[in-house]
Each structure stands twice: as structure tokens, then as C-alpha cells.
Design goal:
mainly alpha, Arc Repressor Mutant, subunit A, two-stranded parallel sheet, 8 helices, 8% strand, ArsR-like_HTH, HTH_ArsR_DNA-bd_dom, WH_DNA-bd_sf
């Protein structure tokens, strides 16, 4: 079960693009050193170390005791490999929550735009698999929640199955949105 996050300061911490990518790589690959993350993300090792310490401060990552070669070799892992459940609406009601939510939404929207732009513009001749799914279906709110849970279970099974540092694998991003179509939202607001 995913860890429920209610603290707006945690939301602000994970809104940082480098920290968000670190969390993604730790989820995909498992325990990593700052130097590993530095190479993956193209950031200096001291910057990766700083962001790891910030994530640790909020309980999102922890040292993977026993994974390092010695006491000086720090290896990091997710504090909870099942992921996070962010209740942004609840966080917005807390002091500082609205500002934290705005920062998080802005960063998340920018990242989503980058992913979509890349998916539509990259060449298919590079040998890397890409897919875009745009499917419409009619659901009740309860059915939408059930579909989300089923898809999440499938994705989490794949994360567990493929986690590790296999040099043949790339880190993929799976971005999915399930929401009423924009013209349908007006109908629910009027009801």
C-alpha cells in the first residue's frame, strides 16, 4: 500500500525536478549511490548528494545499510518502495499548502509537457520503443477509481519485476491521466 503524504513541506520537497527524477530512478533501479544518480541524471555528484540528503530529511529515502562496500560508501534506497499517495486537495487546506501545491503542480505540468513533446517529436528510427495511448471511455467515478487501481497494480508488478541496474535497460516513464474530457467537466460543475 502506498504511503499517504499529507505534509505540504514534503510536497514542496518532491516538486524539485532533480529530486523527482532521483525518486524515479530509485524506484526503477533500486538502491543507488550519488555517483550513480549523477551519471544517470547528468548532474554533479555533490548536487545529487545534496538532493538525496534533502529527500532523507523528509523520510522519502534512506541509506541502504549493508549495500555499500564500506562505511564511507553511501547507498540510498526509497524509504517506501510502494510509492506515495499525494492528497493535494487536503494539503492545500494546511498552512503553506496552497503555495506548495502550486509549486508541485507547476513542476509536474512542465515535466508532463516535456514527456508529451518528446513522445510526439522523437524519431522512431532510434530503436527505442515509444507508445502513446489516447483512449476514451465512459465511467462512473467509482469505475474510474477501480480502473486506476487495476492499472497501478499492473505497473507496480512491472516495477518489481524489472527493478535493478541492468545496463540493457533504459528508464522509461509511463504517464497516464484519467479524467473527464474538458467539455465534460462543465457538465459536472453545473450539476
Amino acid at each position: 500500500m502506498k504511503r499517504h503524504v499529507h505534509d505540504p513541506t514534503v510536497l514542496r520537497a518532491i516538486a524539485h525536478p532533480v529530486r523527482n527524477r532521483i525518486l524515479g530512478e530509485l524506484s526503477a533501479q533500486g538502491p543507488l549511490r550519488a555517483a550513480d544518480l549523477s551519471a544517470e541524471l547528468g548532474v554533479p555528484a555533490n548536487q545529487a548528494s545534496f538532493h538525496l540528503r534533502q529527500l532523507a530529511k523528509y523520510g522519502l529515502v534512506e541509506e541502504a545499510v549493508g549495500e555499500g562496500r564500506d562505511r564511507r560508501d553511501r547507498v540510498w534506497r526509497l524509504a517506501d518502495e510502494t510509492g506515495l499517495d499525494l492528497d493535494i486537495t487536503e494539503m492545500e487546506k494546511q498552512p503553506g499548502g496552497a503555495a506548495a501545491a502550486a509549486v508541485f503542480r507547476s513542476q509536474a505540468a512542465g515535466w508532463a509537457h516535456e514527456l508529451v513533446d518528446t513522445a510526439y517529436s522523437e524519431s522512431r528510427r532510434d530503436g527505442v520503443h515509444r507508445s502513446i495511448t489516447d483512449q476514451t471511455l465512459r465511467l462512473t467515478p467509482e469505475e474510474a477509481r477501480a480502473l486506476t487501481e487495476e492499472l497501478s497494480d499492473v505497473l507496480n508488478a512491472w516495477v518489481r519485476r524489472t527493478r535493478g541496474r541492468d545496463p540493457e535497460r533504459l528508464t522509461y516513464s509511463y504517464l497516464a491521466m484519467l479524467q473527464p474530457l474538458p467539455d465534460q467537466r462543465a457538465k459536472t460543475d453545473d450539476a
